[in-house]
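Quick one:
INPUT:
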């Protein structure tokens, strides 16, 4: 599990087809600290390290199955292509972007690039089955980069790329027509923090009392709601997926307080 904050741009060094696709990726990481079997996000795709180089010859090898090739653009990678890299999040690490699992949902095509001040605005077209889960001000990981969605228009959505992101990721090289891997943050529909007082959190018919400072991760696809007790003062909600009826009711209740 990662955060969408790219920490290195590697390069495809070698590709070999033998049943599955085997790739060697050059990196600036100290590979002596990378265990065989560890995960590294490669342009957003969570891949397992199966071999590695040395302190003076830094690289790692991964294997991509047919399923991975069918859901991502790895099949189109060539020797010399740059790759956004991120090592997995450790407990206690700074969560600088948003929770990114590396399980890719599909491909999005870059349709337009427009200069906007020092930044550039990029407009992507998402697959029809994924587009309903992309919301303005929500989070989306594109090629492993955590970004905020600025606007949504049907199956198209826009993001703003600041100069720093252009310089330290592969996004400075993107041109219209190229595809990236989107990962919409739909692992949890809501993240709620109880600031003071208590509330009752119900999921799948089970009630749980939560107090000040409690972080509630509400799983997607499970029946749930938060029942106010009258003692809580603030609920901070960060909504990643499409609003549900119970969330709308909760927001209406909060506005009436």
């Amino acid at each position: 599990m990662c955060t969408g904050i790219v920490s290195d741009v590697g390069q495809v060094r070698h590709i070999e087809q033998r049943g599955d696709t085997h790739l060697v990726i050059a990196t600036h990481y100290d590979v002596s600290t990378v265990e065989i079997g560890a995960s590294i996000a490669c342009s957003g795709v969570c891949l397992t390290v199966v071999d590695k180089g040395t302190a003076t010859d830094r690289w790692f090898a991964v294997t991509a199955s047919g399923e991975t090739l069918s859901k991502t653009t790895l099949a189109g990678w060539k020797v010399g292509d740059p790759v956004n890299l991120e090592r997995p999040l450790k407990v206690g690490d700074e969560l600088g972007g948003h929770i990114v699992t590396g399980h890719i949902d599909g491909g999005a095509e870059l349709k337009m690039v427009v200069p906007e001040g020092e930044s550039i605005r990029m407009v992507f077209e998402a697959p029809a089955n994924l587009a309903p889960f992309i919301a303005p001000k929500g989070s989306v990981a594109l090629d492993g980069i955590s970004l905020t969605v600025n606007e949504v228009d049907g199956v198209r959505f826009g993001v703003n790329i600041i100069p720093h992101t252009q310089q330290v990721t592969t996004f400075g090289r993107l041109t219209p027509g190229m595809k990236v891997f989107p990962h919409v943050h739909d692992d949890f529909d809501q993240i709620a923090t109880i600031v003071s007082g208590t509330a009752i959190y119900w999921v799948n018919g089970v009630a749980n009392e939560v107090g000040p400072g409690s972080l509630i991760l509400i799983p997607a696809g499970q029946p749930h709601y938060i029942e106010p007790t009258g003692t809580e003062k603030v609920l901070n909600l960060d909504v990643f997926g499409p609003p549900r009826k119970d969330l709308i009711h909760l927001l209406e209740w909060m506005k009436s307080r």
